[in-house]
Design goal:
- One of its GO terms (cellular component) is mitochondrial matrix.
- Belongs to the BolA/IbaG family.
- This is BolA-like protein.
- By secondary structure, the protein is an alpha+beta fold.
- The chain has one domain (about 5-100): GMP Synthetase, Chain A, domain 3 (2-Layer Sandwich).
- It has four helices and three strands; from the N terminus they run H-E-E-H-H-E-H.
- It has helices spanning about 5-20, 65-75, 75-80, 95-100, and strands at about 25-30, 50-55, 85-95.
- Strands 1-2-3 form a three-stranded mixed β-sheet.
- It is globular.
- The termini are far apart.
């Protein structure tokens, strides 16, 4: 079954594509796994609150992992602060890192 992306996921994809020109971008909405957690009680957004993102971009070359994550968080600040995105699980790779991982 093909799942349609919601408005927050669509915005995330658009922003990451615009900022990082990724060679590969995968976004998985894991919100259904967390909908009943205590941290989301009373939340207005439980359908687009948790995302797993893999992004491969040359813009990560020479950038340490924590700084890569900060770059992504900065781009998605609006979604995190105002749209109820509660958590991001990030995999940020350069193209050579991604190719090595895929060829294991």
């Amino acid at each position: 079954m093909l799942r349609m992306a919601g408005p927050i996921e669509t915005a995330i994809r658009r922003k990451l594509t615009s900022e990082f020109s990724p060679k590969h971008l995968a976004i998985a909405n894991d919100s259904h796994k967390h909908a009943h957690h205590a941290g989301l009680r009373g939340a207005t957004n439980t359908t687009e609150s948790h995302f797993r993102i893999t992004i491969v971009s040359d813009k990560f070359a020479g950038v340490p992992l924590p700084a890569r994550h900060r770059l992504v968080y900065k781009v998605l600040d609006h979604e995190l602060q105002n749209e109820g995105v509660h958590a991001l699980q990030l995999k940020t790779k350069t193209e050579p890192e991604w190719e090595r991982e895929q060829n294991k």
